[in-house]
Automatic annotation (TrEMBL):
Protein name per the record: UvrD-like helicase C-terminal domain-containing protein
Gene3D superfamilies: 3.90.320.10, P-loop containing nucleotide triphosphate hydrolases
Gene Ontology terms, MF aspect: ATP binding; DNA binding; exonuclease activity; helicase activity
Stretches for region Disordered: 1183-1216
Keywords tagged on the record: ATP-binding, DNA damage, DNA repair, DNA-binding, Exonuclease, Helicase, Hydrolase, Nuclease, Nucleotide-binding
Organism: Oribacterium asaccharolyticum ACB7
InterPro entries recorded: ADDB_N (IPR049035), DNA_helicase_UvrD-like_C (IPR014017), P-loop_NTPase (IPR027417), PDDEXK-like_dom_sf (IPR011604), PDDEXK_AddAB-type (IPR038726)
Classification of source organism: Bacteria, Bacillati, Bacillota, Clostridia, Lachnospirales
Length: 1216
């Protein structure tokens, strides 16, 4: 006849110690008598170690004593009876089967018909079916509930899940497959027949409750004439209501529920229930009754935890109820005199408990590190004596790895790693993404970047491929095949720039890409016949084998151990075997299933999300950082509980996709209980927090952050607040104001970076000795001295000092370096010189170091600008071949524009506009804007007598080591009636707003128009030596369609023409003005001001003399800039242009120069503040001076020539 006995006791009372002693005692009586010590799966190894090393285990071994979990007991039964263990369908396999079942029954579903393909549905459906199997709920039970349901929606959901559940079970039956739950059922049959599990002793320790499967196992064990001892946690004051019907809000509901279920089994099987052993009242070692007020063994060095153990989360009603229960059993145990109460209160002062509030998680982790280091250094703790809990590893993981590595604290983060995070999984999934979505920029380079490349050559080759793909907009396998021969399109300059010199075929990246092509082709060709899962897995295995991924990854993982992450290195190594094993399982169990490319990728996504990689600590002496529920800490000396914030605890329950809380309650009311509801989970969580508080033997450290990583503010968790009434004197330590201690060189450097700049303010150099002397006595200067005297930190200190005292000083490169970078002759365009005047450093980076933006195939602003330029070029070329310009700008405008655009769309540069809906809209918009621009240009042209002379005219300038090239967008001319005077107009098209300004000219930013005009004038003067050639106008024309505000009283065409007015300078002479525009009153076409119908000489209207002076001035400025470049000028000196626009506004090099106005000598240059009149005076004055110098120079040359001639004559005559 079997016996059942409970061991009751609170945390720390000695339940486990009693059970271990009992197990060793029973095992020692008879070596043929089997003793089984059952614990949760995660406790098995630690419990084996504890039993082996126990003082009562004299032989330090276990012969007939075995430590098992329920799962190990199941599998051991197969071994005992020489039965093979069936292979279980893993989580991924379940989802795959369920997807097949859902596809088959989709039409019969009432509610979930449209939900099957939604993310997360199949995973939750799988979890729900597994839950039903664990709790013994059949498809028929769900169908019955569906019929009972009053709510149609609930009934439809239950009907659908019953259908999917039944289909799932039928598939397993047809294919002879098992789930883990199904194997447990088979295992229970083996346990029933296993002689090893009869007439034995079973001790169950560490359980908070039992699942349906575990209860069935207990039932079988009770039938086998076994002695069963079960230890469960309950505190002394609740023993009285242990057998009362409790609710979920009770802290020990799980214990009460377990007792109820086990005793019902015992009653049903007529098992003898022995009196319970209460280690709350009796010492677990001696068996003697505890003295009144005596603390439990675990809390001897931290008696404050006894108070938490007895009174945590204990309301008034519960106290009264517990007291009544105690009166029935042992009234004397609660009788205390006033003196005894006082004595006890003194004993349980909150010594050993630290409560800290931190400003953020970073500071919280740092404070915890300080605590750990103090325990190790000052109190002789080992790292293994300390345990830590974080309630949300996602929020703490990165900070823990970063900060604790810096602080040299060895630790092990007890968390499961997703297979998707492993390097092997990333390569595999990226290859499947290419298969699913095709050869796109993102998919191909995600694949290539997932490989561990070694050496600069490999990386540079992939970088080059990426630039080529981005520039050409590669898409599809044939396009990406061109990457295998990148040298074919390589320029000589690019060949010199690249560092990889071997043939592309000799690089591993080349082979990886080739293997991807083969993998893709194999799946594409076979797909025509219909691919099953086995074929696809074989092709994937071939890819992984050919790329030698496993060996390459194993070589590359060594850096993790160097970073102090040995656990992660070991886990990533194991992930390779797990993934290969998973693929083999899929091949064996589901290999004959036909599967599409998309489903193949989804299958691995599901597998990677469901399969977790468990880590094992690499060394024993390290701090274990664990999880609230899963982790098991075996009473460390010190215990740190971080993250006790209301944002983390209570933990929010995830949203249920299938059954709501109400629907789960309906199932429970119908007699079918599933896992706890959300509100019940919060009470269970509270119990785990309570257990965590009672974990340590000596120190308890609690903390929470005020601010979380997402910016939310946090406050103390309600679970933490329940400690405050127990310890009124417990003070919260507020971190943030006081500085962290400095415990190593790295921390000293951090402190130095933070504090030293405060002592080195900008005016420190100008203070008196007495004012600054005290600063050298500060901690930051003592740190500076300490670090400077240590060789290993000196270089870092030098960098810190350099950064603190950095000033933007004018630095030049040598003339030799300038010559090497730019050459003897500066080549480029006028824009190059304008870049130099805008910021010399930007010029140095762009033209000296040749730093460029990465080219891309996307439509960008400059692409649209180039399109407008080409459109106008082609239109005016066609126009110049026609006789009737009025017709071209009138009824024929649309026709000519369409012809022009058709030509442009054939140009490879603009072929992008032909693809995609967005670009189609852009084409329509560009055509509309082009029509409006040409209309305005036509009005401006036909409104005067000037006609186009040249389009895209070549510009050349070669003087004093400067060689400039460019294109003048348009040159118009007018020949006077007497054919003696030729007037010229230069127009430069701009895609953005651009206004000519004398201030910009003086700053070197508006040199283009004057230089273009000067070149055209000189050329035409050479061609027309008998004519007077005069500048008439130089204009910027903005190529954009302006928005005109609505005004019913105004003429919209007139307003539009005003908005289209060009910007620049106009020759004020009447003859020039009259041919530029035939106006009656105000000017609609020119940027001039009129008064009484006459143009005023102000603003854009200037005299011929000023225009000529301006051209000479611009040329001189250009030559001056060239001289400064050759002398090596490259200062970081941007200019503030107009309003908020600066040289930095659209500069791509800001991340290189680091320009910051808060740093000394980093300032924007300002344009000349003088008025236009003053600037014209300056231009005229400089021009006059130049002419005078030129004339003087010519006179001196003539005198020297005359003197030389006279000397020669005298020599011939014999004079001395």
């Amino acid at each position: 006849m079997s016996t059942l006995q409970f061991v009751f006791g609170a945390s720390g009372s000695g339940k486990t110690e009693f059970c271990i002693r009992k197990a060793l005692e029973e095992a020692g009586k008879d070596l043929n008598h089997n003793v089984y010590y059952l614990v949760p799966e995660q406790d098995t190894l630690a419990m084996q170690k504890r039993i082996v090393m126990h003082e009562n285990n004299k032989g330090k071994g276990i012969i007939n004593l075995d430590v098992l979990s329920f799962q190990r007991l199941y599998y051991a039964s197969f071994s005992h009876r020489n039965k093979p263990v069936p292979k279980a369908l893993d989580e991924m396999g379940k989802v795959m089967v369920l997807s097949l079942v859902a596809e088959k029954y989709n039409r019969n579903l009432h509610y979930f018909q449209g939900e099957i393909d939604k993310p997360g549905f199949l995973e939750e459906a799988k979890s729900l079916i597994s839950e039903c199997m664990q709790y013994g709920i059949s498809p028929e039970n769900l169908s019955n509930c569906a019929l009972k349901s009053v709510k149609k929606l609930t009934g439809a959901k239950l009907h659908d899940m019953a259908l999917l559940y039944a289909g799932f079970l039928n598939w397993l039956l047809e294919h002879g497959k098992y789930t883990e739950e199904g194997i447990q059922d088979l295992a229970l049959e083996q346990v029933l027949q296993d002689p090893n599990y009869k007439n034995a002793t079973f001790l169950l320790d560490g359980f908070t409750g039992f699942t349906v499967s575990e209860l069935r196992c207990l039932e079988i064990l009770m039938e086998g004439e076994n002695n069963i001892l079960i230890s469960l946690e309950i505190r002394s004051r609740e023993e009285g209501n242990l057998y009362e019907k409790g609710d979920m809000s009770s802290l020990f509901y799980l214990t009460k529920d377990a007792v109820k279920e086990v005793e019902e089994l015992a009653l049903k099987l007529n098992v003898k229930v022995l009196p319970a052993i209460n280690v709350n009242l009796y010492d677990s070692i001696s068996g003697e009754r505890r003295k009144e007020g005596e603390v439990y063994p675990r809390f001897e060095k931290i008696p404050a935890l006894q108070k938490i153990c007895d009174d945590y989360a204990y309301g008034k009603a519960e106290v009264e109820r517990a007291s009544r229960g105690q009166e029935k059993r042992d009234v004397k145990s609660f009788e205390k005199t006033e003196q005894e109460e006082e004595q006890k209160e003194k004993q349980i002062r909150p010594f050993g408990i630290t409560l800290r509030e931190c400003p953020n998680i970073l500071r919280e982790v740092e404070e915890a590190a300080v605590e750990i280091r103090a325990l190790v250094k000052d109190e002789g703790y080992r790292y293994r004596d300390i345990a830590v809990i974080v309630p949300d590893s996602e929020s703490y993981r990165d900070i823990l790895f970063r900060k604790w590595k810096d602080l040299e604290i060895p630790f092990f983060l007890e968390e499961d790693i997703k297979l998707m995070d492993s390097p092997y999984g990333k390569v595999l999934r990226s290859a499947l993404l290419v298969l699913e979505k095709g050869f796109l920029f993102d998919t191909v380079f995600r694949y290539l970047r997932a490989f561990p490349y070694r050496g600069a050559g490999e990386e540079e080759l992939v970088d080059r491929w990426e630039n080529i793909a981005r520039e050409r907009g590669l898409k599809g396998l044939p396009a990406f095949s061109s990457l295998l021969k990148p040298e074919e399109d390589e320029t000589e300059e690019e060949k010199e720039e690249r560092t990889y010199k071997k043939k592309v075929e000799d690089y591993q990246a080349y082979w990886d890409l080739t293997c991807l092509f083969t993998f893709y082709e194999r799946n594409r060709k076979s797909a025509e016949k219909g691919l099953v899962l086995k074929d696809r897995i074989d092709s994937l295995s071939e890819l992984l084998e050919k790329t030698d991924l496993e060996n390459r990854l194993l070589e590359s993982l060594s850096f993790l151990s160097e970073e102090g992450m040995e656990n992660r290195e070991e886990s990533f190594e194991k992930s390779i075997g797990i993934i290969l094993e998973m693929m083999e399982k899929m091949r064996e169990s589901l290999g004959e299933i036909s599967i599409s490319k998309k489903s193949f990728g989804k299958l691995f996504d599901l597998a990677f999300s469901l399969e977790k990689l468990r880590q094992i600590p690499a060394t024993l002496d390290q701090v274990v950082v664990g999880d609230l529920r899963r982790s098991r800490f075996h009473n460390p000396k010190a215990f740190l509980f971080l993250g006790l914030s209301s944002e983390f605890l209570p933990k929010g329950m995830g949203k249920k996709i299938i059954f709501t809380e109400k629907e789960r309650e309906f199932l429970r009311e119908s007699g079918y209980r599933l896992s706890p509801l959300s509100w019940e989970e919060s009470y269970i969580e509270k119990y785990y927090v309570y257990k965590a508080f009672l974990t340590p033997k000596e120190r308890l450290y609690l903390s929470y952050p005020r601010t979380l990583r997402n910016g939310k503010s946090g406050k103390a968790s309600p679970y933490l607040k329940e400690l405050f009434p127990l310890f009124p004197d417990l003070k919260i330590i507020y971190s943030g104001k006081e500085k962290l201690p400095i415990y190593n060189g790295k921390r000293a450097l951090e402190e130095l970076v933070e504090e030293l700049p405060k002592q080195c303010t900008g005016n420190s150099l100008f203070l008196q000795k007495e004012e600054i002397l005290h600063r050298f006595k500060t901690e930051s200067f003592r740190l500076l001295q300490y670090l400077w005297n240590r060789e290993e930190y000196r270089e870092a200190v030098e960098r810190i000092l350099k950064g603190i005292f950095f000033e933007n000083t004018e630095e030049r490169i040598s003339k030799e370096m300038s010559l090497a970078l730019y050459g003897e002759i500066l080549k480029g365009s006028v824009s190059r010189m304008e870049v130099f005047y805008s910021c010399p450093y930007a010029h140095f980076l762009q033209y000296g170091l040749n730093l460029k933006d990465r080219k891309t195939s996307e439509v960008q602003a400059f692409t649209i600008g180039n399109l407008y330029h080409r459109m106008l070029e082609l239109f005016f070329k066609k126009l110049m071949r026609r006789k009737d310009m009025e017709e071209a700008f009138g009824e024929k405008l649309e026709e000519i524009l369409n012809e022009v655009l058709e030509e442009l769309w054939q140009d490879p540069e603009f072929s992008l506009f032909l693809s995609g809906g967005r670009n189609e809209y852009l084409r329509m918009k560009l055509q509309k804007n082009g029509r409006r621009i040409l209309w305005a240009l036509g009005k401006q042209l036909l409104g005067g007598d000037f006609r186009p002379k040249a389009v895209e005219e070549e510009f050349k300038m070669e003087e004093e080591g400067l060689q400039l090239r460019g294109r003048i967008d348009r040159v118009d001319e007018y020949l006077s009636e007497d054919r003696k005077t030729l007037f010229l107009k230069v127009i430069d098209y701009k895609s953005g707003k651009k206004a000519f300004s004398l201030k910009n000219l003086f700053a070197g930013l508006d040199l283009q128009l004057p230089l273009y005009m000067d070149y055209v004038l000189q050329r035409e003067k050479e061609k027309n030596p008998n004519r007077e050639v005069l500048p008439s106008a130089l204009f910027y024309f903005t190529m954009e369609n302006p928005v005109i505000p609505y005004d019913k009283d105004s003429d919209p065409d007139k307003e539009r023409l005003k908005a289209f007015k060009p910007s620049g300078l106009v020759n004020f002479s009447e003859e020039s003005l009259s041919h530029l525009e035939k106006r009656e009153e105000e000017s609609l076409l020119l940027p001039v001001q009129c008064k009484n119908g006459e143009v005023e000489e102000k603003g854009a209207a200037v005299s011929s003399e000023k225009l000529e002076a301006l051209l000479a001035f611009a040329k001189k400025e250009m030559l001056e800039g060239a001289k400064r470049i050759k002398e090596g000028e490259k200062g970081i000196s941007p200019i503030r242009k107009e309003g908020d626009i600066t040289s930095c506004s659209y500069c791509p090099y800001h991340s290189i120069c680091g320009f910051d106005e808060d740093i000394p000598n980093f300032r924007y240059r300002s344009p000349d503040s003088r008025t236009d009149e003053e600037l014209w005076e300056e231009i005229l004055k400089k021009t006059e001076e130049e002419i005078e110098e030129s004339d003087t120079g010519e006179e001196k040359t003539l005198i020297r020539a005359k003197d030389a001639k006279n000397i020669e004559t005298r020599k011939e005559d014999g004079d001395e």
